[in-house]
Amino acid sequence: MLENTQVTTEIDSFDELQLEPRLVKAIQRAGFLHPTPVQCQGLPCLLGGKDALISAPTGTGKTVCYAVPIIHQLLKEESTMDPNSTSFHDGMQWEALVLVPTKELAYQVTATFQLLNRYNSIRTLALLQKQPSSWQKVALTHILVTTPATLLHLLQQGTYSIKNLKWLVVDEADLLFSFGYEQDMQKILPSIPAKVQSVFVSATLDKETYHFLRHFEDKRHAMQQIRIKHDVTQEERLQVLAKHHYVQVEKEQDKYLVVFALIKLQVLKGKILIFVNSVDKGFRLKLLLDQFYIHTSLLNAELPLLSRLHSVEQFNQGKSSILIATDEACIWNQKMKSSWKANANTLDKEKTKEQENEFDLSRGMDFQQVAVVLNLDCPYSLISYIHRAGRTARAGKAGDILTLVTSEEMPRLQNHFEGMGLKQEQWNPLKVKMSQVEPFRYRVEDCLYKITKNVLKEARATEIRREMLNSEKMKEYFAHHALDFEALKSDRPLNTRTNPHLADIPSYLMPSALRPLNNGVSCLT
Q1: What pTM, to 2 d.p., does this model score?
Q2: Are the CB atoms for 153 and 128 separated by under 8 Å?
Q3: Is residue 355 within a helix (H) or strand (E), and if so which, with residue range?
Q4: Taking the domains of the chain in order of start, what are their residue ranges?
Q5: What region holds the Helicase C-terminal domain (predicted)?
Q6: Do the beta carbons of residue 179 and residue 207 sit within 8 Å?
Q7: Could you give the CA distance from residue 279 to residue 284 in angstroms, rounded to a whole number?
Q8: Distance (Å, whole) CA 2 – CA 223
Q9: Contact in structure between 145 and 124 (CB atoms under 8 Å)
């Protein structure tokens, strides 16, 4: 059983912890002047060797909370070893394991560890590939950050084990212990040594997580809970700082018309994060907007990891103000839940195929200064809606969430609003008069008509070719296969901007008025 007692020992500054000097220097260099609330409670607990279940909202410093104790203990261990011994630096298998649901989050967690290891020799590795060529550094690392599927594949080869593990961190535990990951977790956890210090971290925890943790704890020992009491929870923050809008359209294709009008007429202001539920729909929207000379960036599971990270970086730096993100996880979870009882064998096959992507855009990604979250597709679950919406209205700033729905999707959106505790007067229908966007219909539908299945296929292939040409791993191959490089380079690029006149809106097509609604969203009247 899990202990329900809250942590009683807290700190007010990092100085109280008497951390290893090199770690203190790294913390200061990173600009962490004062511990956050979760760190005030979590650091003394974890430095004291206790297991912990940490629940705190996104952006509260949970990664630093578990990274600092791990690094501190490793540095203490290093200081007590024989100076002539090389076992700490060479050939020692990793001692700390951090499990995360997505490759993007693995990179972010690894970056935090590397930031704190600036002045020491502790090595952190993000293991993201299942190929043997990527395993060479595993034996030389001290802290391994990876996904459950990748770790399981590594352990099944028989070369590595986790018998010497001292720390286990499960980040985004509510996701890793829920549908889609739990089978891998159930295979991994029995191999975890009983002596390991365990830390389970999440922004949200549900009954399924507690049930799984109880099953885990029955075999081991009690776990201390750390719950940060905030004046404003994530749901309350989204109630107070965010405004929830929706537009109901007659048919699915009308969504493209509305999105075009809202963006082209600058009704939506600031950085816009658009969520779609399929790769094809993401490409379709990008190709549509591209024909009107509206620049967008694309983010989906098909793109290589470094390309995805680059897209997020460009968006966060303001070099791209519109990012179209494919959030396939919510649809996949919906399909899996509905088919679980019907065909468990088929489900396992689908799970293996789908989970290879280990990609969830609504979580584990750091999107900065998002003014508007636009759902082209209504999320299937309340959790997905909350995580998408949580990308805006952060750091005390206001934000807007706009969801486009058909009549069939409207009941689902109403359930999300009610699940968040929003009062009906907080449901803000965006007053888009279709009569005023109707003049754009011919242009939009004509451009959509040109985006055939073959065009979508070519667009996806173009992205892959571009990544191959820019890939560091392919440089050596192309150095010995010049003809292949030239052939790939000479492939006809996809050109969607064939009508320059579409870049501008004729005055006779402009709506009669635009009335400001708030900082991020205006209203067509």
Answers
A1: 0.67
A2: no
A3: helix 344-355
A4: 14-227, 234-449+495-524
A5: 241-438
A6: no
A7: 9
A8: 6
A9: yes
**Contacts with 339 (C-beta within 8 Å, 6 or more apart), sequence order:** 346, 347, 350
Q: How confident is the model at residue 212 (pLDDT cuts 50, 70, 90)?
A: low
Residue keyed to tokens 């791990």: 70
Please choose, from the candidates 44, 75, 67, 261, the residue with its C-alpha nearest in 3D space to the C-alpha of residue 169: 67
Q: Which CATH superfamily is domain 14-227 in?
A: P-loop containing nucleotide triphosphate hydrolases (3.40.50.300)
Stretch among 233-237, 251-255, 472-476 having the lowest mean pLDDT: 233-237
10 Å CB burial of residue 269 (0-12, 13-18, 19+) is: middle
Matching CATH topology for 14-227 and 234-449+495-524?
yes
Does position 35 have pLDDT exceeding 70, yes or no?
yes
- pLDDT, tens digit (0-9, with 9 covering 90-100), for 1-16: 444 445 556 788 899 9
Q: What CA–CA distance (Å, rounded) separates 440 from 524?
A: 14
Handedness of CA 373, 336, 173, 130 (dihedral sign): negative
Residue pair 246/405 in contact (Cβ under 8 Å)? The answer is: yes
Nearest-angstrom CA–CA distance, 74 and 95: 9
Task: Please name the residue that has the structure tokens 């962490």.
Answer: 32
CATH hierarchy code of domain 234-449+495-524: 3.40.50.300
Which residues are 197's β-sheet partners?
167
Nearest to 8 by CA among 224, 230, 222: 224
Which pLDDT score is estimated for 403?
A: 95
